[in-house]
Amino acid sequence: MQAEPNEWDDGWLRQAIHLPSPNFGPRPPQACIDLIVVHSISLPPGQYGGQAVQELFTNCLDWDAHPYYQQIRGLEVSSHFYIRRDGELWQFVSCDDRAWHAGRSHYRGRDNCNDDSIGIELEGLEGGRFEPAQYQALAALGQALIRRYPIAHIAGHEHVAPGRKQDPGPGFDWSQLQSLLHLPPQCFP
User: Fold this and answer.
1) 74-102 pLDDT per residue, tens
2) Counts for the chain of helices (H) and strands (E), in that order
3) Is-catalytic flag, 121?
4) Which helix (H) or strand (E) holds 177?
5) By the 8 A CB rule, do 141 and 89 touch?
6) Which of 55, 88, 121, 158 is catalytic?
7) DSSP labels for 1-66?
8) Fold of the domain built from segment(s) 8-187
């Protein structure tokens, strides 16, 4: 696939809302960015539409604003992208850099999936359903990533960190994403 003119700027997708996170680092030399990891997140859990996720990824979350935040106090994480319930797309880390989204992980015979993956968070609950606008935004983002990087695999956090993570969970429709991206089944878990 050919990249669309001016679609990217140093790993930043132009159509996304940019909010740079300090939580990133360089990828290892020779890293092949061939994996997309799909996650789900909402802060506090089950509450949508606020700015808490953006605040978490930029180390600005008020840990005292909600009792749940005490469980994650001091956490320094990021994702490359975040897709809200209405399909609005945010980007926190250049795709050329390593975001801190997968943690301890293993997939495709490789450890440390952060090294060679792109993390995409969907606003939602682990195991819950996602909105049509999110699938449309995820598919458009996936196509843009495929045009720029040698993406060969798309998996959930649950697949790269089994037993430790369970998102996006059974509410995520993998067959719908496969259909929207027109990729063969072997690209998916």
Assistant:
1) 999 999 999 999 999 999 999 999 999 99
2) 4, 12
3) yes
4) helix 174-181
5) yes
6) 121
7) -PPPTT-EETTEETTSEE---S-EEPPPTT----EEEEEEE-SSTT--SSSHHHHHHTT---TTSS
8) Lysozyme-like (3.40.80)
